[in-house]
Structures are given as structure tokens and as C-alpha cells.
Design a protein that fits this description.
Largest sheet: 8 strands, parallel
Strand content: 5-15%
Number of helices: 27
Number of strands: 21
Structural class: alpha/beta
Strand order of the largest sheet: 1-10-9-8-7-6-5-2
Shape: globular
Radius of gyration: 26 Å
Number of domains: 2
Oligomer: single chain
CATH topology of the largest domain: TIM Barrel
CATH architecture of the largest domain: Alpha-Beta Barrel
Length: 764
């Protein structure tokens, strides 16, 4: 008989109780004891739900106080020296210090979790001496067993993936670090086995990327050691996000089960299974329900897939699973009362996906006739959406086809544009600016709610937004910034804001997903053909420009970021959706230029996270991503300066594509990576305008002038000073006003010192 399981459940709670508890603790509104109790209630509530839904193997230890990668580092005592922690269990003050920074110590680097929009805290190894400070999977197992009588499946981040995601060691030290980590994993698993644990989910998503021969040998060494030390424990070696590389090596590992993604890795994993079969002594964890998308599964297709899988693996050796953790999708559609019927019927969030898994298990074990009615209901829901006029707009499709037939490029090369732009703007050396947003206070959020609820008129709301713009335009001038922004006070989220002004989008009321820490986002849903409905940003930007003689940037979110930060329709290629977005945004760029806005920033922080995990697919994706950006920005005049912004971007492996975007100025985060990105410019030439973020906006800490000045000095060794801009690493929406003003004051002072130093060192 087939079983069903999931790889993880959303942490945030039905009403984002998790987020609220964390932020209450950080602000001092609740004590640590109360935090533990609140999070335990959320955690146990999740487990009860999985029990009630009928999930057979229920994950434990997938819950976190911030991030599961950080949890693993802390469990092994890998604490950077700057946090001054001694041996033993790590207190929350240090745990959250690593995640968010403290007054005296910078936070650890944060970056994307594979190709998702989730961010993890990067472990720092350096000269640490790892020890098992506390067995967190065991604690989670005991809690579920004691409180709910539940035989949980502990989830553990595997050794090779953990090591590959860490920093602070050289390639030559990889095996040395494995020698340090393997005994700790052995100790942890032995304690789990002694407690009576039956199954452990060992996550090794690194197995879906191209591994070296040495890495394959490391995987074999890791799991041979674990199998020898804990022969009684059933280990499910779990992969996700793509098809595995080195399938033949993977299936020989001495583990009880292997989990494969049959959604995003369908073609590759199915091909490997057909060609090489599956071991008769192992369980196949078949990831058939999409853990990253929000659409109902085509259950007939899933059952056809399961029929094929059962030709290689009988039902009694199948576990039907999610393709990855449900961390990446909202909790439930239950409260979505405003989504049109034809769309809502085709949606499946985490709770609905649990129902799909249980339904598939019933179909496999009881036969399709037993679930015929449910299968028909699902098929009808998908068909209603397919027939929707919103998915079949000939006007949009023809206009986009005409645009894509042309070669999108600026009328003049950068060298010519730069002269025209400098003549127009007369900016100083090392121009200072920000990325776009300023702090959104409780008053801003309250005003937005009053307007949305109809308690304020449009005129009242506009007057309030103008007051906010006035305040921050004055502050920016007083601080001495060279290029200003209007602050984006009218915007909730940089993607949602634009989606609300475009056809083809729909929005949830409670579709929250964790992005990093307590930061939750509510991705819009692209369900139909995308089209512009008129100006989106012109009025606020023009108003801001009217309040100053300094240049004000128009601020747009780019087509690839809107694509990658939305839940996207699955009936046409993502490339085509990107071109539809580019066509709509192109009209807004031209409207801003026509209104007299001569600097326009089209942010693309999510370009790299959309990069496929398979290297052979990189170039195709980058080609159409760059094309979509250029479709958006290419029609402007040569004196109009196009800016863009990218977050947490490993520059070295896509520098050619970033150059091809042909933005006049690009800003890139470097602060949390402690300037490591600068190394990329020592081996790569970049001849466009660039600003490397000189301080971290994700931490409340205000950096000193000397820190930012030091970062600037490092940059000027590898970049042309005449092309260098100075800015924070990201938008300032989540920061408080006082810390924002203090940090920007220090940034402007660092720029002043850099100008003096450079002028003194440059022959007249």
C-alpha cells in the first residue's frame, strides 16, 4: 500500500502568527518564555492538521525560529567569533544576532535558497570547532511524540548540501570539514535511533546540480559512514527542485529511500528511471505534487505518471510526496473570498495540496473509480480557467508578437549616452542615491488601509502620500543626496503594486509566503494575458520632481522580477509571460520619459534567482530575460538614464548577461557578503555605471562612516571612479526613520571623504 508524505509545511501560521510572535519578541513586547510557548502552539497546530488530513509520514524539525540552514549551523556550534559565544546551547540573542546583526556585530550573509525566493543565512566555518550543541531533530521528534502521540519524520539538512552552502573554507578543506561534520551527524542520528525514530528525511538538494567526481565520492563516503553507524535507521535521501545528476551513483547509496522531484525534475528523473530502473531494496519518494506552484494538479496526468512509476516500483515501495517543502506556497485558500470563481477553483495552496496527495493515495490503493467524482471536479476547475477570455486576448498576443520580432536595443552605445547624460545632469564624482523605498511607518500602512476600505477618499489619500513625499524630499536634500527618489509610500510591495495596475493579475487576501526571517510576501497570481491599463507611477514621480531641482528617479519593477516573484500561469512558457510584462512596462517607461522624468530605474533583483539549476539551461534563460529587460527600456532617448538594481547576485557567472542588459547604472548588493563581490571585478571588466551597496539595510545596525569608506576604497581599486555610484544595498522600506537618516548621513559623509581622497590622489 502506498503512503503519502510531505517534505515540509509553511512555518508562518494561518494568520502569520509566527511572524507576529517573532517581531513582538524582537521589539521587547514579549519575553523569551512567551515566544517559545507561542511558537510551540503554532508548531503543534501544524502537526495536528497534517494528522487530521491523513498524511502518513509527517515531517518534524521543518519548523524554525528563523531559517533551517541557520538552525543547522547553530546546532553544530558554528558561531562566528564576532558574536563571542562560548560552548554549549546557543542563546536566542546569538541566534538572532547572526540572522539580523547586533549593535557590535554584522549579520551573517543572506542569499537565495537555490532558485527560489526564500533566503537562507549562509553558515560561516572559518576556524570553528563544530560540536553538537543540542539535538534539534530529537527535540522535535520528542515533542510530537509526547504532545500528540505522533511518530514524526525528522527533517535534517544533509552534510554535503550544508557544506556546499557554507562559506569560510577553501576547496582543499572540503574533506577536512566533512571529517569534522560526519561524526556529528552520526551522533545526532544515533540519538534519534535510540529514541525509536523510524524514518529520517535527509535533505540533499545539492544532488540536483552538477557535482564533481570528488563530490560524488563524498556523498558515498557520507552515507556509508551513516549506514554503518546507524544501520537500523531508515534514511530517505531527499532531493528536490530538479532532476538529480548522477542518478546511477545516487541509487547505489546505502539508504532506505530516495526522494525524487517528478514536477520540476520530471523529464530527467523519469528518463533516468526508465533507463536504469530503481533498486528493489529501496523506497521511492515520488514528488508528484508541486511544492512551489499554486495551481491545482492535473490529477489524471498525475495518475498516469504514477501508473508508469509502478512499472518500476510497486505501490508498497512508493511514498507519494510533495516535490519540495510547502514552505514556498501560502497556507490555505480557505479565506480567499474575493478571487473570482473561475480562478479560485483552479488554486491549491498547502492545505489543498495535502488533499491532493491523500486523493492520489486513495486512487492508487483503492482504484480510480473510488475517487472518480473528485477527479472530475478537479478537471472541470482547470478547464474553466483554460477557457477564460483573460487567457485568450488576441490583442495582447499580437502586440507582443510584433514587439518580439524586433531587436530591442538603445539608439546609441553607452559611451555616447554617458556624455549626453553627464551634460544633462552634471553629477559630482561618486553620485549618491538610494534604491527607491523609504520607511513605511504604521501611519503609512494605516492610511493605505483607510483608503482601501473606503473610509478615505482618493483625494485624502493622495494628500497624505504627498505629505510623505514632501518630508522625505526635504530630508534627502538636507542629507545631501545627489539623485533623489519619491519613497514609494503608495506601494505595498514592489511586485503587487504593479500587478494591481495590470490586467491578467489576481490577488490573494492571505496568500503570504516567507521570504526571509519574519519578512512575508504576498505574491500576485498571473493567471491571464498581461496588459497595461494606463499610467502606474507617473503622478507620484512627477509630483516629487516638482519639489526639487535635483533629479528624481522614476521607479519600476522589471519584467523578470515581476515574473519570478509572482505565481505564474503554467499553460504557456514563462518566456512568453515575460514578454507580455515587458510590453506593458515599456509603455510606462515611455510615459515617465514623456512626463519629463529623465532617470528611470527598472529593478531586476530577481534575475539570478530565476536561473535554472542546470548549467546547460542557463544561456537560454538569460537570453530571454535580458531580451525582456531591453524590450522594456530600449525605446528611451540617449539622455534618459536607465538604472537597475540586483540583490545578492553572484556577479561572476552572469557578467556577460548583465552587460548585455545595457543599463546605464546598475546597483548590486555587497554589504552582507563583506565585499566579496568586489573580487569578481578583479577578473572581469565592467564599463557601465555601477553602485555596490555599501551598507546592509536588512539589519537595524547603523554602520560607521569608516566602514563604508573602507568598502568604497576597495571598490576603487577595481572599478573606474568615473562610473562609480554610492548607495545602500537595497530599499529602505523595512527600516525605521531614525536609523535610515543616520545611515544615509554616514553614507553621504563616506562619499565626501572618497571625493576628497580621490581628488587629492589624482594629478591636476
Amino acid at each position: 500500500m502506498a503512503l503519502c508524505s510531505i517534505l515540509g509545511y509553511p512555518r508562518i501560521g494561518f494568520d502569520r502568527e509566527w511572524k507576529k510572535a517573532l517581531e513582538a519578541f524582537w521589539s521587547g513586547k514579549i519575553e523569551e518564555t512567551e515566544l517559545h510557548l507561542k511558537l510551540q502552539d503554532i508548531r503543534l497546530g501544524h502537526l495536528r492538521k497534517l494528522q487530521d488530513k491523513g498524511i502518513d509520514l509527517i515531517p518534524v524539525n521543518d519548523f524554525s525560529y528563523y531559517d533551517h540552514v541557520l538552525d543547522t549551523a547553530v546546532m553544530f556550534g558554528l558561531i562566528p567569533d564576532r558574536f563571542r559565544h562560548k560552548d554549549g546551547p546557543v542563546p536566542l540573542s546569538v541566534y538572532y544576532g547572526m540572522a539580523r546583526g547586533t549593535k557590535d556585530a554584522t549579520a551573517s550573509e543572506m542569499t537565495k535558497w537555490f532558485n527560489t525566493n526564500y533566503h537562507y543565512i549562509v553558515p560561516e566555518l572559518h576556524d570553528a570547532n563544530p560540536v553538537l550543541t543540542e539535538n534539534r531533530p530529537l527535540q522535535a521528534y520528542r515533542e510530537a511524540k509526547t504532545k500528540l502521540g505522533l511518530e514524526g519524520k525528522p527533517v535534517v539538512l544533509g552534510p554535503l548540501t550544508f557544506l556546499k552552502l557554507a562559506k569560510g573554507y577553501t576547496a582543499h578543506e572540503t574533506d577536512l570539514w566533512l571529517d569534522r561534520l560526519i561524526p556529528l551527524y552520526v551522533q545526532m542520528l544515533q540519538e534519534l535511533a535510540a529514541e525509536g525514530v523510524q524514518w529520517v528525511q535527509m535533505d540533499e538538494p545539492i544532488a540536483v546540480v552538477r557535482l564533481t567526481a570528488e563530490d560524488i565520492q563524498r556523498l558515498k563516503r557520507i552515507y556509508a559512514n551513516l549506514a554503518e553507524a546507524v544501520p537500523s535507521l531508515n534514511i530517505m535521501l531527499q532531493t528536490y527542485f530538479e532532476s538529480v545528476e548522477n542518478y546511477r551513483d545516487l541509487i547505489t547509496l546505502p539508504v532506505k529511500g530516495i526522494g525524487l522531484d517528478f514536477v520540476h525534475g520530471l523529464d530527467g528523473n523519469l528518463s533516468s528511471l526508465r533507463e536504469h530502473g530503481f533498486p528493489s531494496d529501496k523506497i521511492l519518494g515520488a514528488g508528484v505534487i508541486n511544492g512551489r506552484g499554486i495551481w491545482r494538479a492535473n490529477l489524471d496526468d498525475k495518475l498516469a505518471l504514477l501508473d508508469e512509476l509502478q512499472q518500476a516500483v510497486p505501490a508498497e515501495r512508493l511514498i507519494l510526496q510533495s516535490s519540495c517543502s510547502f514552505l514556498h506556497v501560502p497556507v490555505s485558500t480557505e479565506r480567499e473570498t474575493k478571487i473570482p470563481y473561475e480562478i479560485k477553483g483552479a488554486l491549491a495552496f498547502a492545505d489543498e495540496k495535502l488533499d491532493e496527495l491523500v486523493l492520489l493515495r486513495r486512487a492508487v490503493t483503492e482504484g480510480k473509480p473510488a475517487v472518480a467524482e473528485e477527479l472530475m471536479t478537479a478537471a472541470e476547475a482547470l478547464d474553466r480557467l483554460k477557457q477564460s477570455p483573460s487567457r485568450n486576448r488576441i490583442d495582447v498576443q499580437e502586440a507582443v508578437a510584433l514587439m518580439t520580432a524586433q531587436d530591442p536595443k538603445r539608439s546609441k552605445p553607452f559611451e555616447v549616452r554617458r556624455i549626453a547624460q553627464q551634460a544633462k545632469w552634471k553629477l559630482p564624482l561618486f553620485p549618491t542615491t538610494t534604491i527607491g523605498s523609504f520607511p513605511q511607518t504604521s501611519d503609512v500602512r494605516k492610511a493605505r488601509q483607510l483608503w482601501r476600505k473606503g473610509e478615505w477618499t482618493k483625494d485624502q489619500y493622495t494628500a497624505f502620500i504627498h505629505e510623505q513625499i514632501d518630508t522625505w524630499m526635504k530630508l534627502q536634500e538636507e542629507l545631501g543626496l545627489d539623485v533623489l527618489v519619491h519613497g514609494e509610500f503608495e506601494r505595498t510591495d514592489m511586485v503587487e503594486f504593479f500587478g494591481e495596475k495590470l490586467d491578467g493579475f489576481v490577488f490573494t487576501q492571505n496568500g503570504w509566503v516567507q521570504s526571509y526571517g519574519s519578512r512575508c510576501v504576498k505574491p500576485p497570481i498571473i493567471y491571464g494575458d498581461v496588459a497595461s491599463r494606463g499610467d502606474m507611477t507617473v503622478s507620484e514621480t512627477v509630483y516629487a520632481q516638482s519639489q526639487t531641482d535635483r533629479p528624481v528617479k522614476g521607479m519600476l519593477t522589471g519584467p523578470i522580477t515581476i515574473l519570478n516573484w509572482s505565481f505564474v500561469r503554467e499553460d504557456i512558457p514563462r518566456e512568453q509571460v515575460a514578454y507580455q510584462l515587458a510590453y506593458a512596462l515599456r509603455q510606462e517607461v515611455l510615459a515617465l520619459e514623456q512626463a519629463g522624468i529623465g532617470m528611470i530605474q527598472v529593478d531586476e533583483p530577481a534575475v539570478r534567482e530565476g536561473l535554472p539549476l542546470k548549467e546547460e539551461e542557463h544561456q537560454h534563460y538569460l537570453s530571454w530575460a535580458v531580451r525582456a529587460f531591453r524590450m522594456t527600456t530600449s525605446p528611451v532617448q540617449e539622455a534618459t538614464q536607465i538604472h537597475t538594481h540586483m540583490c545578492y547576485c553572484e556577479f561572476h557567472d552572469m557578467i556577460d548577461s548583465i552587460v548585455d542588459m545595457d543599463a546605464d547604472v546598475i546597483s548590486i548588493e555587497t554589504s552582507r557578503s563583506h565585499g566579496e563581490l568586489i573580487h569578481s571585478f578583479e577578473t572581469n571588466t565592467y564599463n557601465l555605471g555601477i553602485g555596490l551597496g555599501v551598507y546592509d539595510i536588512h539589519s537595524p545596525r547603523v554602520p560607521h562612516v569608516e566602514e563604508m569608506a573602507g568598502m568604497i576604497d576597495r571598490v576603487l581599486h577595481v572599478l573606474d571612479p568615473k562610473l562609480f555610484w554610492i548607495n545602500p544595498d537595497c530599499g529602505l522600506k523595512t527600516r525605521g526613520q531614525n536609523e535610515t537618516v543616520a545611515a544615509l548621513h554616514n553614507m553621504v559623509e563616506a562619499a565626501r571623504l572618497a571625493r576628497e581622497k580621490y581628488a587629492a590622489s589624482t594629478p591636476s
